[in-house]
Amino acid sequence: MKQHSADMECVVQGIIETQHVEALEILLQGLCGVQRERLRIHEICLKSGPNLGTVASEVRLLCDLEQAEPSWTVRHVGGAMRGAGAEQISVLVRTMVESKTSKNALRMFYTLGYKLDHELLRVGFSFHFYRGAQITVTVSSINKMLKLHATDEAVPVTPGIQMVEVTAPASAETYTEVASAVSSFCEYLAPLLHLSKPGISTGVVPTAAAAAASLMSDGGGTTL
């Protein structure tokens, strides 16, 4: 199989209390000018066994349950960009390879020696739009399965809290501009939530309640 050069993505994450999600949706609707898409994704995280060499490998199988016929994607997230340039930008830049696959992919990875690490169900919504870069914002509750693959019996990992993720595809030539576009967009969301590089927890912002109340009262009539 021919190895293609890896794509890259810029990403930031944050959390918001579920009670303020409706206000965030109103704000995003005004900023993006597009309709939201419902999100229901079964995510299976697989890790390589010791027989595949010393370098641990992790892949994620994503099943889109919103489709009439559930579709599968395999996603491999590589290492984050390092060095002085990476430190100076407020978003994480990492390699990422994604490809459509069949429902038999799970069996194939098991055959290759991968083992199930954990699985999640993400339920929420997303916005896809262009604003200096092709940006995707996802807002979702993260749920764990009580039984293997039992998506109907999933329970929230953090009740009352939802994860917000902003991502944009990039390349070695464009990541600076894309990172800048993502950072600029995140500033509009600042009163409701703080977005930072994954792994850097900043918690909920103290201004969220007041910002949410303001958005709910004017119905998101302001378009920026």
UniProtKB/TrEMBL annotation:
Enumerate the transmembrane spans. Answer: none
Could you mention a single GO BP entry for this protein? regulation of transcription by RNA polymerase II
Instruction: Show the GO cellular component annotation of the record.
Output: core mediator complex; mediator complex
Q: Gene3D superfamilies in the record, alphabetically? A: Hypothetical Protein Pfu-838710-001
A GO molecular function assigned to this protein is: transcription coregulator activity
- Per the record, the domain of life is Eukaryota
Q: Where is the protein found, in the record's own terms? A: Nucleus
Q: Recite the UniProt keywords alphabetically.
A: Nucleus, Transcription, Transcription regulation
Q: Keyword Iron, does the record have it? A: no
The similarity annotation says:
Belongs to the Mediator complex subunit 18 family.
* Protein name (record): Mediator of RNA polymerase II transcription subunit 18
- Organism classification: Eukaryota, Viridiplantae, Streptophyta, Embryophyta, Tracheophyta
